[in-house]
Amino acid sequence: FEHPEGLKSVFLPSMVWDAEQHIFEAMRAERVTWYRCPAGHLYSIGECGGPVMETRCTHPGCNWVIGGWQHTPAKGNQRLGTYWEMQKDKTERASPGYTVVAVGRVGEDYGHHVGRAGYVMPKESVCFHRLLLHLAFVAG
């Protein structure tokens, strides 16, 4: 790897899904519907999933109106759907490049980090693939 900047555009084994996928996976047991504000920031609405009030996006520097009235999203807000609706239309959403993932935490389960084509790699496989990848980095 003489030119590490070249890794930004390639898909590497054992790298994670995009960050949003982790959020969706973590919240899948909740009954929420996902939306994007006009600036593209995620937010969720519980219960029936239809907006019944307006507020402001809390992402630093954003302040766009989010939510809506009478189950109609505010102007510029995009409904993404529930976790299960999004799974029906799911496409591969991995990001290219090397992704640093916190390791060594007690109880860390790597299995949910790498899912491809409907299956999830066991944590032992993820760790082994990362070992090989890091050895390749060291070897150059």
UniProtKB/TrEMBL annotation:
Assigned keywords, A-Z: Cytoplasm, Immunity, Metal-binding, Zinc, Zinc-finger
Entry GO terms, CC: cytoplasm
GO aspect biological process, one term: immune system process
Protein localization: Cytoplasm
Pfam families: ZnF_RZ-type
Keyword Transcription regulation: no
Domain RZ-type as annotated: residue spans: 15-93
Primary site of residence: cytoplasm
Keyword Zinc-finger: yes
Protein name: RZ-type domain-containing protein
